[in-house]
Amino acid sequence: MEALGLIETRGLLSSIVAADAAVKAADVKLLDAEIIKGGLVTVQLLGDVAAVQAAVEAGENAVTSFRTLISVHVIPRMHHETSTILQKFPQSALAPVPKTTKVEIAEAEAGEQQSDHTIVANEHSIQDFDQKQLEKMTVLQLRQLARANNVSLLDATKNIKYARKSELVQAILAKENNKK
Length: 180
Hints:
By secondary structure, this protein is an alpha+beta fold. Helices cover 43% and strands 21% of the residues. The chain has seven helices and six strands; from the N terminus they run βαββαβαβαβααα. The strands form two sheets. The protein has a four-stranded antiparallel β-sheet, with helices on one face. The chain has a two-stranded parallel sheet with strand order 5-6. The longest helix is centred in the N-terminal third of the chain and has 15 residues.
């Protein structure tokens, strides 16, 4: 039976130290380091009961000098329905974010679901996108595309950092039309 070990700390640094000490101390799998609001981070470990208990104890000892430990807990012989809760949590913020390609955007237009965490790659030209594609992008994606292609806003006093989605789309389309 598998056990779930949880180490909750205040701050990313101490959670990384706790996770490192835990996986070095015992044969456990690091599931996630979930960042919660308020600077709280929960490290999730999975393995057999004895290994998880040893790993959690090692992680706890590693961060005591930081004085950031909130709590630790081990759930031995976790019920299979409890494990479904872990699958509902979003993936760690530490995981790399995939980049969007032109093919992925075309697939999204064809009705396939596009990930919310995709980011426009810097090597894309604004000529790769039409208005419909631009309007489907997030503000973050539009800002990255605008910066990568040296787009200046129509209102020269405003910074890309503070631009709204509609302003970004208009500026990108205007720059594309000027290139033609």
